[in-house]
Amino acid sequence: MLTMNDLKKGTIFVLEDQPYVVLESSHSKMAQSRAVMQTKIKNLVTGSTLNRTFQQADRLEEAEIERKKFVFLFAHRGEYCFVNEKDKSKRFFMKEEEVGSSKDYLKPNSPVDLEFFGEKVIRVMIPVKMDLKVIEAPPSIKGDTATGGTKTVVLETGARIQAPLFVEMGDIIRVNTDLGTYAERVEKGK
Question: If you count Cβ atoms within 10 Å of the first and of the last residue's Cβ in the chain, which end, N or C, has fewer?
Fold first, then answer.
């Protein structure tokens, strides 16, 4: 059982038969009242967030989350197809809403981890850094780099991110998928 003091960022617990993850937590104590833990938590099934205050006496069940390795195969008409890394004969599909923001960085044959709560997939976990090809980028003009500016580029997955002015169409760049930001250029396009 988890107590109020165990509710740190990233802790996953069960509340009202639903898995939640702690996004933020802060311990507070007012003059003569008891200490409380103020948290911002996210429901891993519905994706909704809420603020909740926990008391010293509250006891919470730790969620049993199982993580399995899968490979993303393809997306078609809002459905995403995954296959188990060990048994490639078994495919299953998820709707675009269930995949969440991870869909912006999924390319065919990408390794992913799927988190299960019971039999339900609650999260698609992609690598923090992924190498993606730039398929659209406005042209750079000589002298642009003096200011260290950025421009919007389109990646092979369709995602749009801000990248430095020297990035061109055909380049392969490393993207931080947690933040949705440019990390570095891996290979210059031909």
Answer: C
Beta-carbon count within 10 A of 167 CB: 22
DSSP string, 63-116: P-EEEEEEEEEEEETTEEEEEESS-TT-EEEEEHHHHGGGGGG--TTEEEEEEE
pTM of the predicted protein model: 0.75
Contact 181, 167 (CB under 8 A): no
Going from the C-alpha of 147 to that of each of 143, 162, 168, the distances in angstroms are 9, 15, 18
Q: Which two tokens stand for residue 50?
A: 């809420």
| Tens of pLDDT, residues 123-165 | 899 999 999 999 999 987 766 555 678 899 999 999 999 999 8
What is the distance in angstroms between the CA of the first residue and the CA of the last residue of the chain? 57
Give which of 134, 115, 123, 122 is closest to 178, Cα–Cα: 123
Question: Which stretches in the chain have pLDDT values below 70?
Answer: 142-147
Q: What is the DSSP letter of 74?
A: E
The conformational region for residue 149 under phi > 0 = left, psi -120 to 50 = alpha, else beta, is: beta
